[in-house]
Amino acid sequence: MSIKLITALMAMAPMAAQASSQYNLTQGVTDISQRVFDLHMTIFYICCAIGLIVFGAMFWAVIHHRKSKGSKPASFHENVKVEILWTVIPFVILIGMAIPATSTLIAMEDTSEADVTVLVTGSQWKWHYKYLESDVEYFSLLATQREQIENKLEKGENYLLEVDRPLVIPTGKKVRFLITSDDVIHSWWVPDFAVKKDANPGFINEAWTQVNEPGIYRGQCAELCGKDHGYMPVVVIAKSPADYESWLAEQEEIQRQAKAEEQRLLAMSMEMDELMELGERVYIGSCAACHQANGEGIPGVFPGLKGSAMVTSDMDAHIDIVVNGKSGTAMQAFGNQLSLKELAAVITYERNAWGNNTGETVQAADVNAFMNQ
Amino acid sequence: MSTVVGEMDQHDHHHAPSGISRWLFTTNHKDIGSMYLWFSFIMFLVGGSMAMVIRAELFQPGLQLVDPHFFNQMTTVHGLIMVFGAVMPAFTGLANWMIPMMIGAPDMALPRMNNWSFWILPFAFAILLASLFMEGGGPAFGWTFYAPLSTTYSSDSTALFVFSVHIMGISSIMGAINVIVTIMNMRAPGMSYMKMPLFVWTWFITAFLLIAVMPVLAGAVTMVLTDKYFGTSFFDAAGGGDPVMFQHIFWFFGHPEVYIMILPSFGIISAIIPAFSRKRLFGYASMVYATAAIAGLSFLVWAHHMFTTGMPVFAELFFMYCTMLISIPTGVKVFNWVATMWRGAMTFETPMLFALAFVILFTIGGFSGLMLAITPIDFQYHDTYFVVAHFHYVLVSGAIFSIMAAAYYWLPKWTGHMYDEKLGKLHFWASLISVNVLFFPMHFAGLAGMPRRIPDYSLAFADINQIVSIGGFAFGLSQLIFLWVVIKCVKGGEKAPAKPWEGAEGLEWTVPSPAPYHTFDTPPEVK
Ligand code: HEM
Ligand SMILES: [Cu+2]
CATH number, domain at A243? Predict the structure, then answer.
């Protein structure tokens, strides 16, 4: 019975592996990912063949050389020729594997002569993309609603694999990624490109891809990076070069306008209601992962803001920690992540939510003044 | 044999102290061996219950039972307990019981140190487990505790984590020194190195690995401690350090460590397969050389855990080639076991069943290891469930199955009773089926792109995870059968003869069952 079970399993493995990419490595959408896939299947089949021979011999012995069948034990216990043979043959097989592996690896690590370069920065728990040849840069955050994660809403098709602002790259061009981190180690992974590279704080890694087909490609952070490691997906949209160029121009324009708007806002002041409403949205998006939606934090890990001395009194210190972060801790500098208006709103929110009721508002101009001190 | 029994009678007046002080102050290798084995089994159940929490959370997508921070504590402490609390102490327990009896020595060479190296362990794990109840929770950075997640970004339980790893390390080093000194000095006359049973040989080599790498682990945790609390920056680029250096140091310990957890298994399997094939082990000498080769190579492959960290191509190639090479001596072992069975006269008692399952399932783990060794494809596999499947094949259906096999094989010698063969077989079949339902589908989850160490996953992985969780619960429950078998066997059962297995070889079978409190007070003569 056991034999049948195991042979059945062994027969199933390659079938299941080929059946669909739902249960196998993806072939991906780049020449490299195709080579990686082919290498994967080659090594897999070699292992299956060796397994068949070794397990076959073992089961032959188990079936035929058993005491209950009257088998009498032989007395041989070594054979130099056989032993040399089964050392040398595997060695030759390994060389056969090493050759394609080496050439594929060398091709993968050649990041020279790129057409486009993107700086990818990981931080707890989001990605930041910056196009080095233009002014465009932005954060990319998980877009799945909290309610889906907490099983209060039905989960969507791309549950946990969707972001608010995907990375956009052109097809048919060599795109180079410079990868780094602002805090702990993350790992930027898109299976369809066969690209996975660690984002190490203080160091810059390189990787590249050249995508053949337009499409949306999804991946995830692959290195344990703390509490919400499971919630920092990577989404990349590959567009034809023309579409990419117009997208990029559009983004540049939008970012220019946003900056102008920012300046204009400095002269205006916002009402408490307005600030609280925007502040809550920003808080949920940027702060709640650590300080929690109820402002109580996680004792011993992330400090609570509800009733905190800094948040209820010292306004300058409060603006300072939000804008500049606190080095040596998980508290990031949000000054370059949020607009002045958003900063003002979220600080106002923290000073008035959860019974903090200071009644104070902070305006974009206040934040700006602080930053220019 | 009669001389040995006569020897025992003489020593009958040496009454061991009774009650708790017998266990607290004992210097007897058999008592200490038993304590190690019970301790490791308790830790196996504790670590196992954490695995049940993990599998329950992963039964469905979405967050149901625990929050992500607690989930990370579970994966971390599960890993630490299974490695340092279950597998390693089980091997040390077997070494304590069996090495003196196998080489014809009266006890371990350093009996007081032996007592100490066991008794500090419960404290180490009490500290680790207690840290889970601290404000901020226990360690949540994975058993690999990569900096800076374990330094700047960890909670204050890190100090306790460091302290407890230090104690575990000291315990292992003392145990290893004891094994080496015992083997080098206390072999019976005529027991030359090349006559030692393979279990003794593999443990001898393991002990050297332990002495070489446990201090490295101690260094790593100490640097984590000073980076976190005393302002050093070993692993912080802002102060001139490098977080990737942490990984080099950790894996320089970590890779030999995985061999520490499998070499003694090779020794156990090399005892059991010949016994139940009624035929001498094939290629004894090549087994010894292969073990030494694996141990030597294990120092040259650490960075295969770090292919995605951005090493230069040259380094990636070097570590890929060295890792591939390890599969040669590993293959030699498997071929030797199959050749031992070939034209033997096999029977299939529970120890043999576990040994056979070991050969197949460990080899499957070796195959996935070979796939992981190929750098360009490791980029795809790394940090996915494919790796989780790999190391559970070699550690659960490898190391732990071999420990089960050893327990069934030597239980008659330890207790003087035969275990219940029916229950043993039930335990085996339940474990074999459930372990495969648990770990085989993980390969597919990993290939399809599921990262490891996540509390929640996309819908594509839902079916696989459900199957895996069911396998997990079944495997967990199956181990309670083992507890039942052992208790039943300790309490009573058919009387075991001195040598209950027809084909078994070795000095341990020349003393009565149960083995008397003192054996080989005068050394036996080995021809
Ligand atoms: C033919 C022999 C083996 C080869 C070629 C091999 C290769 C590898 C490789 C390349 C990895 C890294 C995968 C990755 O993270 O991307 C790995 C992981 C691992 N291997 Fe093996 N391995 C072998 C045997 C073993 C054995 C015998 C054990 C233990 C008994 C073991 C335990 C582990 C563990 C625990 C990990 C994962 C550690 C972690 O990241 O948490 N391996 N193996
Ligand atoms: Cu390794």
Answer: 2.60.40.420
Q: In what order do the strands lie in the sheet with A205-209?
A: A137-140, A126-131, A116-123, A175-181, A205-209
Q: Which helix (H) or strand (E) holds A291?
A: helix A288-291
Asked if the structure places residue A7 within a domain, the reply is: no
Of B427, B385, B381, B275, nearest in space to B337 by CA: B275
Burial class (CB in 10 A: 0-12, 13-18, 19+), A81: exposed
d(CA B191, CA B524) in angstroms, rounded, equals 10
Q: Domain of A63: which CATH number?
A: 1.10.287.90
Same-domain pairing of A211 and A302: no
Average pLDDT over residues A228-235: 96
Ligand 1 pocket: which of B301, B362, B364, B394 to mutate (most atoms within 8 A of CB): B394
Nearest C-alpha of chain A: how many angstroms from B221?
Answer: 17
Q: Say yes or no: A122 and A257 in one domain.
A: yes
Provide the percentage of residues in chain A whose pLDDT is more than 90: 55
Q: Which residues pair with B181 in a beta bridge?
A: none
In a domain? residue B496: yes
Quote the DSSP letter at residue B397: I
Q: Which residues pair with A187 in a beta bridge?
A: A198
- Asked if A197's CB is within 8 angstroms of B308's CB, the reply is yes
Nearest Cα to Cα of residue A233 among A242, A250, A221: A221
Classify residue B9 by burial, with Cβ atoms within 10 Å: 0-12, 13-18, 19+: exposed
Round to whole Å and give the CA distance between A49 and B54: 35
CB contact under 8 A, A73 and B68: no
Residue B521 lies in a domain: no
* CA B212 to mean position of chain CA atoms: 17
Q: Report how many domains make up chain A.
A: 3
- pLDDT tens across A132-154, in order? 998 899 999 999 988 899 999 99
* Partner residue opposite B63 with nearest CB, options A149, A183, A196: A149
Q: Is residue B135 part of a domain?
A: yes
| Closest chain B C-alpha to A101 CA, distance in angstroms | 6
Minimal Cα–Cα distance from B348 to chain A, Å?
A: 9
Domain for residue A126, yes or no?
A: yes
Pocket of ligand 1 (CB under 6 A): B 144, 258, 261-262, 304-305, 323, 326-327, 330, 366, 369-370, 372-373, 378, 381-382, 387, 390-391, 394-395, 398-399
Is B14 a domain residue?
no
Would you give the end-to-end CA distance of chain A in angstroms? 79
Q: Which domain holds residue A176?
A: 116-261
SS3 category, B324: helix
CA–CA dist B191, B520 (Å, integer) = 14
Of A66, A206, A230, the CB nearest to B68: A230
Q: Do A218 and A287 share a structural domain?
A: no
Does position A246 have pLDDT exceeding 80, yes or no? yes
Q: At what angle do helices B401-415 and B29-57 cross, to 10 degrees?
A: 140
CA of B446 to the centre of ligand 1 (A): 15
CATH number for the domain harbouring residue A327: 1.10.760.10
Whether residue A252 sits in one domain with residue A274: no
The three-state secondary structure class of A117 is strand
Is residue A1 situated within a structural domain? no
Q: Which domain holds residue B338?
A: 24-510
Check if the beta carbon of residue B346 is closer than 8 Å to that of residue B310. Answer: no
Q: Is residue A10 part of a domain?
A: no
If asked whether residues A331 and A363 sit together in one domain, one would say yes
Are both A91 and A124 inside the same structural domain?
no
Cβ count within 10 A of residue A31: 14
Task: Give tens-digit pLDDT for B368-401.
Answer: 999 999 999 999 999 999 999 999 999 999 999 9
Considering its fold, how many domains does chain B have in total?
A: 1
- Please tell me whether residues A149 and A127 are part of one structural domain: yes
